Amino acid sequence: xxxxxxxxxxxxxxxxxxxxxxxxxxxxxxxxxxxxxxxxxxxxxxxxxxxxxxxxxxxxxxxxxxxxxxxxxxxxxxxxxxxxxxxxxxxxxxxxxxxxxxxxxxxxxxxxxxxxxxxxxxxxxxxxxxxxxxxxxxxxxxxxx
Length: 145
Known about the structure:
Jelly Rolls, 44% strand, 10% helix, 5-stranded antiparallel β-sheet, 10 strands, 145 residues
């Protein structure tokens, strides 16, 4: 019964506390090996810490507000690395001149305070608002202990 109660409380906490973000580029970005600053915020919800946004557009970083399983994604015409702290989690590139779109995504079990960000490896990330050509998004699938 105790195990059932623990699982039920965990499921209820998912419904109660939501963490999600989607941020896009309002203009193109060319700073290689730096965090891409997705500045056009579409969604930025953090019920875990209501006074702190899930994604910080000033730093270009998402800091996990709670232990949990998260899905994060980056898409656009680009050559990028999806970073967990300072480690590459996934990479995406169209690696050609045809301006095709690519994406990279990951499902990660994060500890509170771990950082997810997107680093431009090569070239230019095309931005434009309101078209949202390039985006960085994520959300918590489930909390973990």
